[in-house]
Amino acid sequence: MRSAPAVQVVVGDDLGWRIAAAVSCAAAAAVLAAWLGLMAELPVLVVAVMAGMAGLAGAGLSHRLLPAPAGVLAWDGAEWHWGGSNGQVAVVIDLGPWILLHFMPSGRRGGRAAHLPVSRAGARAGWHGLRTAVYSRRPEPRTPSALRM
Question: Helices 15-39 and 44-65 sit at what angle, rounded to 10 degrees?
Answer without folding.
Answer: 150
